[in-house]
Design brief:
Elements (H helix, E strand, L loop, with lengths): L1 H10 L1 H10 L19 E9 L2 E9 H5 L8 H14 L2 H5 L7 E9 L8 H6 L6 H7 L2 E10 L7 E3 L1 H6 L5 E8 L2 E8 L4 E3 L1
Parallel strand pairs: 1-6
Antiparallel strand pairs: 1-2, 2-4, 3-4, 5-8, 6-7
Keywords: Signal
Organism: Pseudomonas brenneri
Pfam families: ZrgA
């Protein structure tokens, strides 16, 4: 079902062009096709609801979630990374999906250099030749991709991000690209405006 998220960058190309004119892109998101630059305090969420399948892809600077972006070497840093990973492995708690929708997690993937994912994966995709290793080390990101199967998708009227803001208080806003039954929209969620409508 990755095809749903692969179509998202093309559907939102006009937004990407407008945003590119406004922001300096550090090219962190080249392999995921997401929008926006690496900015502390700002996360990105792609959400697609298609029939009974809900896909959510959260991308965030590691600083927003764990409080640092370097590889964990101390016991305290390793414990923080492990705690954040455990929180990200509970997407139903993070995204507060309506119980009436009957959504269950079908698949989930977490990816970050902080989780021990090989930095070589980034080098394979780097085409700028400007030393992507140092750049990625300075600006580590955490990517979480979730796919849910929802028994009653019509009950998915809202997507509540309040728990993400509570769990990760360094996340000040989330730029959301949402595709659902009523079309596509780009919105900015904050702790005070954390509920999105499909």
């Amino acid at each position: 079902m990755r095809r749903l998220l692969l179509a998202l960058p093309f559907a939102l190309l006009p937004l990407a062009i407008a945003q590119a004119a406004d922001e300096h892109n550090h090219d962190h998101d080249h392999e995921h096709g997401s929008l926006g630059a690496h900015e502390h305090g700002v996360g990105r969420l792609n959400a697609v609801l298609d029939a009974k399948t809900l896909e959510l892809e959260l991308e965030s600077p590691a600083m927003n979630l764990v409080g640092f972006e370097h590889l964990a070497t101390t016991a305290a840093d390793k414990a923080k990374v492990a705690a954040v990973r455990k929180q990200l492995e509970q997407p139903l708690a993070l995204f507060s999906l309506p119980k009436a929708a009957g959504c269950v997690v079908s698949t989930q993937e977490l990816e970050s250099p902080l989780f021990g994912d090989k930095p070589e994966d980034d080098h394979d995709h780097a085409t700028d030749g400007k030393g992507a290793a140092a750049h990625d080390h300075d600006h580590s990101e955490i990517h979480a991709h979730y796919q849910f199967t929802c028994a009653t998708p019509a009950a998915l009227k809202n997507l509540d991000l309040a728990n993400i803001f509570k769990t990760f208080p360094a996340t000040l806003k989330i730029q959301v690209q949402l595709i659902g039954p009523s079309g596509q929209q780009g919105v900015e969620a904050t702790a005070k405006t954390a509920t999105l409508k499909f």
